[in-house]
Amino acid sequence: MKSSLLISRRRFLVTSAAATAAFAAPRVLTAQKSEKQLVIGEGEHRYEVLHNWPQLPDKYQWQTTHNVAVDKEGLLYVIHEGRENQKDHPSVFVFDKEGKFVRAFGNQFQGGGHGLEVITEGKEQFLYVTGYQQLKNFAKLTLKGEQVWEKRAPMDSGLYPKEEDTKPAKRWGRDAFMPTNYAFLPDGGFFLADGYGSYRVHRYDKEGNWKSMFGEPGKGDSQFNTPHGIWIDQRPGRDMSVVVADRANKRLQWFTLEGKHIKTLDGFILPANVDTHKDVMLVPDLSARVTLLGKDDKVITHLGEDPQWREQVLKDSMKLRSSRTGEEWVAGKFLHPHDACFDPAGNIYVAEWVHTGRITKLRKVS
Question: Is pLDDT of 293 > 50?
Answer without folding.
Answer: yes
